[in-house]
Amino acid sequence: MGRGKIVIRRIDNCTSRQVTFSKRRKGLIKKAKELAILCDAEVGLLIFSSTGKLYECASNSMKLVIERYNKTKEEHQQLLNPASEMKFWQREVTILQEQLQNLRENHRQFMGEQLGGLTIRELKGLENQLEMSLQGIRLKKEKILADEIEDLNKKGNFIHQQNMELYKKVFGTSALNPESGSGCIPFGMSTSEESHPPSTFS
Predict the structure, then answer these.
(1) Is the pTM of this model over 0.70?
(2) Distance between CA 31 and CA 47 in Å, rounded?
């Protein structure tokens, strides 16, 4: 026969209650971790024992989970109240306008405009940011140029090899022998190179 149905009520025996609490707490934390991993959910679990001891489990950070909960709850309450919703979006618009204004001011300062109100320290910081930006631009430019040069060298070597193969097919390998007296010189070879096949580009 299977186990009988357990009646869910407070356990009177203190020792049994503590044992049950420990087992079920561990099981609950294990299930919370599995839920976070299997379902990619953000989970936060808080448990206070009868003695006031705190146990917690969070998929990321309990602080972040609580902050997200408070923010979501506040937004939900504001959406239920039309007046609060209006105030919420007004605050959002104000914040976005301030961010846009800051971005415009930063852009003007990077262009060398509106620098009158800046201190020496702020000007130095702006100068350092510009130097770092220029350094990044130079490195990117040098890499692009180096890649292009390498690509051109590869194409040049390929064309040179193709030219040599074509020359051998037309005139034969003896045409590259200086004793043969052939006056035919493949494209890309000078008269000083007649005794040796042309080397590849470096």
Answers:
(1) no
(2) 14
